Amino acid sequence: MRLFCACAVLLLSLTALGNARADEDLRPLVDALGGGNFRETAGAVADLAATGNPAAAPVLELLRAGDLYTRRSDGVVVRGARAGRDIALSDVFTGEELETVGRREARQIRVNNSLRRDIDAALGQLTLLSPDPRVRAGAAQAMFNARDSAALPLLEEAIAREEEPEIMERLILARAAIQALHGESDSVRLEAIDEIAQRGDREASALLATVARDAPPAVTEAAEAGIAAIERRLALWNMAQNVVFGLSLGSVLLLAAIGLAITFGVMGVINMAHGEMVMLGAYTTFVVQEIIRTSAPWLFDWSLLIALPLAFLVAGAVGVAIERGVIRFLYGRPLETLLATWGLSLILQQAVRTIFGPTNRQVGTPDWMTGSIELGGLSLAMNRVVIILFALAVFAALIVFLRRSRFGLHMRAVTQNRAMASSMGIRTNWVDALTFGLGSGIAGIAGVALSQIDNVSPNLGQAYIIDSFMVVVFGGVGNLWGTLVGAMTLGVANKLMEPWAGAVLAKIFVLVFIILFIQKRPRGLFALKGRAVDA
Amino acid sequence: MWLTRHIGPAGWTFLFVLAVVATAVPYANQLLPPDHPWHASSYVVGLLGKYLTFALLALSVDLIWGYCGILSLGHGAFFALGGYAMGMYLMRQIGDRGVYADPLLPDFMVFLNWQELPWYWYGFDSFLFAMLMVMLVPGLLAFLFGWFAFRSRVTGVYLSIITQAMTYALMLAFFRNDMGFGGNNGLTDFKDILGFDLQSDATRCALFVASAAALGLGFMLARAVTGSTFGKVLVAIRDAESRTRFLGYRVDHYKLAAFTLSAMMAGVAGALYVPQVGIINPGEFAPANSIEIVVWVAVGGRGTLIGAALGAVVVNYAKTVFTGTFPEYWLFFLGGLFVFVTLFMPRGILGVADDLRRRFRRPSAPSARPADQPAE
Amino acid sequence: MNRPAILAAATGLLMASTALHSAYAQETIKVGILHSLSGTMAISETTLKDVMLMLIEQQNEEGGVLGMQLEPVVVDPASDWPLFAEKARELIEVEGVAATFGTWTSVSRKSVLPVFEELNGLLFYPVQYEGEESSRNVFYTGAAPNQQAIPAVDYLMEVEGVERWVLEGTDYVYPRTTNKILEAYLKSHGVADEDISINYTPFGHADWQTRVSFIKDFGAEGKKTAVVSTINGDANVPFYKELAAQGVAASDIPVVAFSVGEEELAGLDTAPLVGHLAAWNYFMSVDTDANYDFIDTWLEFIGDEERVTNDPMEAHYIGFNMWVKAVEKAGTTDPDAVIDAIIGVSVPNLSGGYSAMMPNHHITKPVLIGEIQDDGQFAIVYETPGLVVGDAWSDYLEGSKDLIADWRAPMSCGNFNVATGTCGGSGS
After folding, report:
1. Rg (CA), chain A
2. Alpha carbon C341 to chain centroid distance?
3. DSSP of A104-146, one letter per residue?
């Protein structure tokens, strides 16, 4: 009876202490992570994975993220977080805060690429049976990358249990990858090769190429046949891929040029400060993100959407100020506007350099803009897709605004016949200012998008100004549709030439093409007809 | 003599000042002892020499923009081409004194494992041939470019933008190391010109005098052209192109001639620039440089020739001073200067000088230039 | 006041100010700082101007040099290469600086080189460069190709087992030379022609879609592939953004860069780039007391906790201390005396050792390889066991394998040809 009681108490306490005990078992292994060199750390990772203890997974994740430190004083491995110049230490398992020490007091446990692969494989094994489908998906991918034949039984078990079709597909592919490489018999390997070849993408052909490298002749032959089939399929898609790249470049050009199509195309101001409006938009994005980072991190995914109207307002306001302060005195003297706006662009660049410093500023990418979409053999980077759609949306909105709104009507009236518009009671002064503001504001919006793919530095605008002028002139000054077609044509032409001519020659060819094209059509692709031509 | 007929009193003053500078500066450099307060250091000589070549460049732009209404945003290309022709001659002069001591190939070609001299480098060991190329290459490019552009009646901003495209394309091309012009580093480390050491003060003074002479000659030539019947037609084209055409003038021929002449002047300026600064690289093709040239002309006063030269000197002097005195803020000054000039001095420095003279002197004093701003 | 009086007064004032000026000048030693503060290179060079101001301020607090205070002279060559030459001349001839610290790009160095040689000035050049140069008047405190590129490639071959290489660079001298050296080096290690792809893009190249897609394809041939990037400045951010967008992970195709440091990463979200590599002689994450002191001083000086330190800053730190030591050794700032005195001078670097000035005017440095972390820092994954001596003339290039540089008497030559036994070209 007494014995039974003792056992019951022990059992109870064991279950209660179960987690803590498991942690204590792991602790020496965790401390071994801080061994000092990569080989020792890799050994400790393997030991941790071998325990099969799920509690090891979060530790490995911390290690992978570079959050584990060895405390100098006692060599214990702890979790660390940077706090300014210091490091806040906490317990690896419980997260209990320990102390905050100077940078010199704790040494980060470093991780290199091969160690990172080991960790991923270990994590994959530890989390393959996790209840969370997202974790399982990641684990399946890790198994595919690791191609470790020892994991095959675990994989079989996971396949038997899996219910999500997408993860299932991944798991089967991971199994096929392992079998194709390490299969016991040729028939198992050939079957696996078939399975992989069916996927028909770049990843599959890379895997088959690895399989083909040292294998029995039959396997090599099958793998090479698989590669050839995939290559045939991809060759067609390659062309399409280049067109997509071209459209993506075209949409960047469109975004950069569309504001100029208004200030230069519609108003006739040779606006050399246009690039700086784009830059202001990009810096607005930076400031918005900076504020969100410090005061409302949960808003980060929305930061670009918040930045859009602000960038429009900032750049637009600067535009209105420029028009009221300088350009309105220069109407009818377009070449003088070139000089004044050139001066303004120097001032704006230097102002931004003085305020934000000359170095690049970091603009982050929200989660919904990362990753890519697979469409047949095409791989579309999400940020490019968003930019293409965004450019088209801005264009459409602008067209509708100019056609349908009252202000658009006034604007068209003023640019077509200023005197008549004025006598009809339109305040031409304000229409001028707002039109310039509109063009500048749209340039600002473009800056928000461009901050996702380019440097946010004081030189940002300079990189786009010449291309923008080329697009507007090529498309036909004063015609927005011309700008759209011009941007897309130049983008696609550039990208189709690049694979065989190289980036520099492709660009030179495009410029020469523009020069020759202007000889043929001295007023661009979509020339304005009628009296405006001689103005 | 046809060259001197149309110079006018202001022009003579300009030439006189130029002649004084061209003698005083070498004198101050060569004959005054270094501790003399008026001694001109080699830094000053080099700097002034550079200004003079810029003045000639501005003059060439003013000739077509001020008198013919062609706004070229690519004139830096002609300047740079002239410079490259000169640079190639200077490279060949190095001979086997390069760091690799290769008797034939310039250093950068040895560096990139080139085995033989590309064909377009042949002939540049001769000074005369190089000087011919200094004018011929920019002239030919301008002729071809103008031939197409003017015949197709590309005008106004369209022309400006495609000239910009031209210089941009050339810049990209010259940046390519495969072109055989030294890529981004360009041509540098020159030793001597016609056997004279480029680093000696005497050679510097000689180059300075040559720049002054070229500027004087260029000015006289430009005056002769603009004062002639030919020049009158140019002005007519500037003010009313269609009307001139309807009167039976072959507008494209006139424009082409002026454009080519201007490009050759720019080429000469480039050729004089390179030995004085010691380097030519594709950065000279940058569109921003070409825009800056136009700014010089505007600051000095468009359509006055003297103003263009003056503007080039003033703006570059300001740049020299500001980049040394206010390294962090000089762009504010420079940018502000451009805005100020366009807003308050639409006819440039010379226009203001003109107005002041009218106000303070006899009201009947003759003006050096037409009073009205030309129509666009 | 009548006119002569005004004239006299003005003259008096002028003379007084000149006298004051020269009296002031006698007490200080001028140090020139020749870094672009505007234009395309301002992004990298402004920091170096600041670090020089900091070092000079620090030195002055410790009593200056030879009992005199140092006076920085800052000019802005505005990323305009001919302007570099003009400003160099201004610094030496007009300002009379004792030494100049500056320039970044190869072309700016080439542009000022004749000026420093003509006027016998001293230039400390702090950036990694293509080599193939050794001037009597220039001290190269950045890395030569053998102090950066070759150890990095060795690391990738040994640790990552890389067999296929993409050499991606901006089209100018540094990448051209580095890639030429690497190509020869890789081939000597048995890499086949078809496993090397070399490509050049223009400065400021912003659209990397085609290239990154090519790199993905090139890496999908079953052999472990790596990219060696000599992409310059501005073009790096869009390149890395495109790598992240197209999902090129470091564990699949690592990119090792020679021109990307902490400063460049400051403009990037590095989370998708974790594991890509860079090779330098210094990283901000170096774990030494000297480095922590340097960082603390820098953050104090610049007044912004977010700023980073990088390799060219360390190069200036080393170069400046070398110059100070050489001046104190020579007892004068006279260039000839300093040039003689500085060879063999050894000062602490920030990675826990000493760097010495070699007779070829290059210095000894350790080579570090770091992997990008998600906080914009590098984790050091490899360090050469000893110091590497900077090699002015590469052994892997046809034209320069016979050349050596030694500025000690009696040789005193920057390009001595050991095959012919002569000092060729200009460097006599």
Report:
1. 31
2. 22
3. GGEEEPP--HHHHHHHHHHHHHHHTT-S-HHHHHHHHHHHHHH
- Distance (Å, whole) CA A29 – CA B287: 63
> Do the beta carbons of residue A81 and residue A87 sit within 8 Å?
yes
CA B237 vs. chain centroid, Å, equals: 24
- Main-chain phi, psi angles of C274, to 5 degrees: -55, 130
The residue of chain A nearest to residue C289, with distances taken between CA atoms, is A104
The tokens describing C198, both together, are: 């070399």
From the list B337, B178, B303, B309, the residue with the least C-alpha distance to B235 is: B303
Nearest to C131 by CA among C312, C356, C376, C400: C400
| Cross-chain residue pair B46–C89, CB shorter than 8 Å | yes
Put simply, whether B328 touches C (Cβ < 8 Å) is yes
- Structure ipTM over 0.85, yes or no: yes
Amino acid at A211: V
The whole-angstrom distance between B242's CA and the closest CA on chain C is 42
pLDDT, tens only, B103-159: 888 888 887 788 889 999 999 999 999 999 999 999 999 999 999 999 988 888 889
What gap in Å lies between CA B321 and CA A533, rounded to an integer? 45
CB contact under 8 A, B335 and A340: no
Rounded CA-CA distance C181/C186 in Å is 9
Question: Could you tell me the two tokens for A217?
Answer: 């002749």
Report CA torsion sign: B309, B312, B315, B320: negative
- Whole-angstrom Cα distance, residue C190 to residue C195? 10
Closest CA in chain C for residue B99: C425
- Note the pLDDT of residue B323: 86
Residues of C in contact with B50 (CB under 8 A): 86
> Would the CB atoms of C81 and B281 count as touching at under 8 Å?
yes
β C123-125/C99-102 pair status: parallel
Inter-residue contact A109 to A34 (CB < 8 Å):
yes
Sign of the CA dihedral B339, B345, B351, B354? negative
Instruction: Give the position of tokens 């270094």.
Output: B34
User: What is the model's pLDDT at position A534?
Assistant: 43
Q: What is the pLDDT of residues C354-378, one digit of tens each?
A: 999 999 999 999 999 999 988 889 9
C131 near C144, Cβ under 8 Å?
yes
Give domain limits for chain B. Answer: 8-289
In the DSSP assignment, the letter for residue C362 is B
CB A197 within 8 A of CB A208: yes
DSSP A521: S
3-state SS, one letter per residue, for chain B: CCCCCCCHHHHHHHHHHHHHHHHHHHHHHHCCCCCCCCCCCHHHHHHHHHHHHHHHHHHHHHHHHHHHCCCCCCHHHHHHHHHHHHHHHHHHHHHHHCCCCCCCCCHHHHHCCCCCCCHHHCCCCCHHHHHHHHHHHHHHHHHHHHHHHHHCCCCHHHHHHHHHHHHHHHHHHHHCHHHCCCHHHCEECCCEECCEECCCHHHHHHHHHHHHHHHHHHHHHHHHHHHCHHHHHHHHHHHCHHHHHHCCCCHHHHHHHHHHHHHHHHHHHHHHHHHHHCEECHHHHCHHHHHHHHHHHHHHCCCCCHHHHHHHHHHHHHHHHHHHHCCCCHHHHHHHHHHHHHHHCCCHHHHHHHHHHHHHCCCCCCCCCCCCCCCC
Q: How far apart are the first and last CA of chain B?
A: 33
CB contact under 8 A, B113 and C180: yes
3-state secondary structure of C395: coil
CA angle (A488 as vertex; A485, A494 as ends), nearest 5? 135
Burial class (CB in 10 A: 0-12, 13-18, 19+), A357: buried
A496-516 pLDDT, tens digit each: 998 888 888 999 999 999 999
CA-wise closest residue to A106 among A59, A66, A64: A66
